[in-house]
């Protein structure tokens, strides 16, 4: 059943009275959503358990371990696309609520009447086929079952054997009509289902849905708003939605920001409270916490525009800095240690010079938060830091998840700052890798798509065995590849990296092509079909539709099959 | 007494809140509070107000004296007098610190208010220390201090009582020594 309008009564009040199990996928949007929900639970003294699940098998284990104590289960960004009732087999009294941004949702979950509820934002419309197109009424199902492989022996026939053949003939015609209709209906149903599940895309972020819930309960404040903004920024920067949708959502957030951050002259608020304001953000990662030179070299957008791995590109970059009027010595200093005049004028200089050097899409609208005099973070900084904390290579997923969750509360903002340092290392590692790939010509363009794979034993390989970072590397590599080969712009990019050397498994991630405006990807379908054909040992466990795991030996066969599949369609 | 204990005693003071939930009257050991209706001001004890504020269930209306104008006046009054002036509340320090720490958004110009309260506190502490010094140097046995709050008393108590004890001990030894010398 779909819950939209009465979110407060149907969703929140039902779960806040019992012990709740919250299952969360480890990415930034779900983490923010989980934190919002936790704040609401704490205020109401609701007991809850949070478990991190990165795949379907983990979801099942978590459920079976905890289900005897709980009455409600909330799934955040996981399980929307899986058949929950079949998979988990919950008892009668257990209610499952799904807050998932992945579409398309599994139709069994949407049309389930009692146990599974999908929580959507108000005003959202689900594009799903009608109930009648997919599901049979019971009567027809029975007759279908009878007809399936057997001869036509109906109850009516047995009864009517007495009355004779005439009635049978009439029935024969009627049943022929009915069979034909059912056959057509079934074919139509298959077509509808195929079209429905063909493309995977993302809709409203889970953190935005839960923020609106908090707003309806009048429990929203700047901290929760900031979490919602971080979730929204992830959707843009991790390319889950396109720019237009991001701008629309941002305009929806503007009234909240204005309402909670009114600064009139008489009632200037204390310096220790969080203030959020609207900012035009540059596509330079972490430049306020790094040196300008490093930030320009390691950010995806600028590095690929200037092609900093080539000598000529590097010179171009230096020319750009000279054109802006920034001495190189200053650029190699930490941003906060630069001279005041350079720091203040940096924004206007970069806007002026960017157009000259072809950096058109440098700025985008975003928000930044400030607490006290020392700590000022932009949404992108927060996002990068949290991603780095979640995918900390030195810790297991669960530990890293809990640490990242901890770091999201503003009393622990030092952890975010530590996360920024890790993010810098990660970003530098990604850029070095991209440079290696381009220099050694390891990127292969095989007709319908472009692919590359990370060799075993490369330094910093530990960063790339997690899905979020792998996708980041794939995007960076795709941009870099496109900057040298314009025609590759239309092709999707697939990257593979080893994840577990003992078991011999590798992770494969797909990134859609750049010209796609709507960010719909067909990776899940294509991957499953190719894997079936080659009987590769692949597990489509992960909730991220563009990522899956398989054995390294099967990789070559898999890519051949995928090429064949894509050239056909 | 610990400062935390003094704060605990101060939390009994009544303060006005604006709840955003609705609830019937609460019958507790320390009294009845409520009923609570959204956007209707209610008087509750400070401990309840702070708890509700932390759970985002209300907004606190700062007491009449917790604003810049009143406190600036009070501060100049305190600076002018050589004795202690009457404070707006016998627990002004505890109330202001609790309200400013937990509900800073509800207090206009919270930073200035915080500075002013601290200034008043410092002035009174300086007077207290001067008074103690005077009492000991002039060897007086009796001092009367009006308008001192419990928190301020609590700050000076450990030092003053211990110091006087020491002085008394030394004095006794000195007199017994001189008397034994005389013999």
Automatic annotation (TrEMBL), chain A:
InterPro entries: CDC45
Region described as Disordered: 138-173
Ranges of Acidic residues composition bias in the record: 138-160
GO terms for cellular component: DNA replication preinitiation complex
UniProt main location, coarse: nucleus
Any Pfam family: CDC45
Localization: Nucleus
Gene Ontology biological-process annotations: cell division; DNA replication initiation; double-strand break repair via break-induced replication; mitotic DNA replication preinitiation complex assembly
Protein family: Belongs to the CDC45 family.
Protein name from the UniProt record: Cell division control protein 45 homolog
Native organism: Geodia barretti (Barrett's horny sponge)
Automatic annotation (TrEMBL), chain B:
Subunit structure: Component of the GINS complex.
Lineage: Eukaryota, Metazoa, Porifera, Demospongiae, Heteroscleromorpha
Cellular compartments annotated: Nucleus
GO CC entries: CMG complex; GINS complex
Protein's name according to its UniProt entry: DNA replication complex GINS protein PSF2
Domain of life, source organism: Eukaryota
DNA replication complex GINS protein PSF2 N-terminal domain location: 2-61
UniProt cross-references to InterPro entries, sorted A to Z: GINS_A, GINS_bundle-like_dom_sf, GINS_Psf2, PSF2_N
Broad class of the protein's primary localization: nucleus
UniProt cross-references to CDD domains, sorted A to Z: GINS_A_psf2, GINS_B_Psf2
């Amino acid at each position: 059943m779909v819950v939209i309008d009465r979110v407060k009564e149907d969703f929140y009040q039902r779960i806040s009275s019992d012990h709740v199990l919250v299952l969360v996928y480890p990415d930034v949007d779900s983490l923010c959503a989980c934190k919002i929900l936790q704040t609401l639970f704490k205020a109401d003294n609701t007991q809850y358990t949070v478990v991190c699940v990165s795949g379907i098998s983990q979801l099942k284990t978590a459920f079976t371990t905890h289900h005897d104590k709980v009455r409600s289960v909330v799934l955040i960004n996981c399980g929307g696309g899986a058949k929950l009732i079949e998979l988990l087999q919950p008892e009668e009294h257990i209610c499952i609520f799904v807050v998932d941004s992945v579409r398309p949702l599994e139709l069994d979950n949407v049309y389930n009447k009692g146990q599974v509820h999908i929580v959507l934002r108000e005003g959202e419309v689900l594009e799903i086929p009608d109930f009648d197109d997919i599901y049979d009424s019971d009567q027809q199902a029975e007759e279908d079952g009878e007809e399936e492989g057997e001869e036509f022996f109906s109850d009516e026939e047995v009864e009517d054997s007495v009355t004779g053949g005439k009635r049978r003939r009439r029935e024969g015609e009627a049943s022929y009509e009915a069979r034909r209709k059912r056959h057509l209906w079934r074919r139509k149903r298959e077509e509808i289902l195929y079209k429905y599940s063909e493309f995977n895309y993302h809709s409203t972020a889970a953190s935005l849905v839960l923020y609106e819930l908090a707003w309806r309960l009048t429990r929203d404040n700047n901290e929760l708003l900031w979490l919602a903004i971080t979730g929204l920024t992830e959707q843009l920067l991790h390319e889950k939605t396109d720019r237009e949708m991001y701008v629309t959502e941002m305009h929806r957030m503007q009234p909240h920001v204005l309402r909670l951050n009114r600064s009139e002259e008489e009632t200037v608020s204390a310096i220790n409270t969080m203030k959020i304001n609207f900012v035009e953000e540059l596509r330079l990662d972490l430049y306020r916490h790094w040196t300008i030179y490093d930030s320009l070299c390691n950010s995806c957008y600028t590095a690929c525009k200037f092609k900093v791995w080539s000598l000529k590109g590097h010179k171009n970059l230096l020319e750009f800095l000279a054109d802006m009027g920034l001495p190189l010595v200053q650029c190699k200093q930490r941003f906060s240690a630069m001279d005041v005049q350079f720091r203040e004028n940096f924004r206007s200089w970069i806007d002026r010079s960017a157009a000259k050097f072809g950096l058109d899409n440098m700025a985008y609208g975003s928000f930044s938060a400030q607490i006290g005099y020392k700590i000022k973070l932009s949404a992108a900084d927060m996002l990068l830091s949290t991603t780095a904390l979640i995918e900390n290579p030195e810790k297991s997923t669960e530990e890293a998840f809990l640490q990242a969750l901890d770091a999201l509360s503003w009393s622990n903002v030092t952890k975010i700052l530590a996360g920024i340092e890790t993010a810098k290392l990660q970003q530098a590692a990604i850029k070095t890798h991209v440079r290696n790939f381009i220099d050694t010509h390891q990127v292969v363009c095989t007709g319908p798509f472009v692919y590359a794979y990370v060799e075993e034993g490369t330094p910093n390989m530990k960063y790339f065995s997690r899905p979020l970072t792998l996708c980041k590397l794939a995007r960076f590599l795709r941009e870099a590849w496109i900057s040298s080969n314009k025609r590759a712009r239309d092709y999707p990019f697939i990257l593979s990296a080893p994840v577990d050397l003992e078991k011999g498994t590798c992770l494969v991630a797909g990134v859609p092509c750049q010209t796609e405006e709507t960010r719909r990807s067909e990776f899940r379908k294509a991957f499953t079909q190719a894997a079936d054909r080659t009987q590769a040992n692949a597990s489509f466990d992960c909730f991220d539709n563009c990522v899956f795991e398989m054995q390294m030996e099967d990789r070559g066969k898999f890519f051949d099959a995928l090429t064949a599949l894509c050239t056909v369609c | 007494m610990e400062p935390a204990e003094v704060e605990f005693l101060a939390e009994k003071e009544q303060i006005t809140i604006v709840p955003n939930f609705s609830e019937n009257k609460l019958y507790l050991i320390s009294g009845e509070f409520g009923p609570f209706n959204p956007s209707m001001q209610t008087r509750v004890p400070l401990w309840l107000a702070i708890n509700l504020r932390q759970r985002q269930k209300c907004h606190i209306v700062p007491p009449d004296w917790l604003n810049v104008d009143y406190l600036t006046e009070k501060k100049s009054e305190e600076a002018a007098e050589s004795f202690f002036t009457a404070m707006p509340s016998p627990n002004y320090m505890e109330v202001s610190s609790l309200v400013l720490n937990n509900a800073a958004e509800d207090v206009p110009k919270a930073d200035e208010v915080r500075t002013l309260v601290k200034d008043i506190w410092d002035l009174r502490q300086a007077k207290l220390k001067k008074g103690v010094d005077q009492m000991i140097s002039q060897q007086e046995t009796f001092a009367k201090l009006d308008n001192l709050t419990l928190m301020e008393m609590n700050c000076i108590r450990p030092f003053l009582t211990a110091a006087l004890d020491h002085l008394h001990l030394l004095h006794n030894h000195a007199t017994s020594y001189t008397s034994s010398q005389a013999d």
